[in-house]
Write a structure and sequence with these properties.
Structural class: mainly alpha
Number of strands: 0
Oligomer: single chain
Number of domains: 1
Radius of gyration: 15 Å
Strand content: under 5%
Number of helices: 2
Low-confidence stretches: none
Shape: elongated
Mean pLDDT: 89
Length: 60
């Protein structure tokens, strides 16, 4: 890979991580206001998946 492609990839990854972190905050806020057990379960799973995605993303 050339240097310019690596920088583009890094910018995309950093942007994706920031968007994922914002999504986690929205999910957590929804979890606090949610009364339905099924919806709570889905939101918890979404939060778990998003955190795992951030953990597994290797920013070059």
């Amino acid at each position: 890979m050339t240097k310019s492609k690596q920088h583009g990839k890094r910018a995309r990854q950093e942007g994706a991580v920031e968007r994922t972190k914002a999504s986690i905050l929205i999910y957590e806020e929804g979890l606090q206001h949610c009364k339905d057990d099924n919806e709570k379960k889905l939101l918890k799973k979404k939060i778990e998946r998003a955190q795992e995605t951030i953990k597994n993303t290797k920013i070059i």
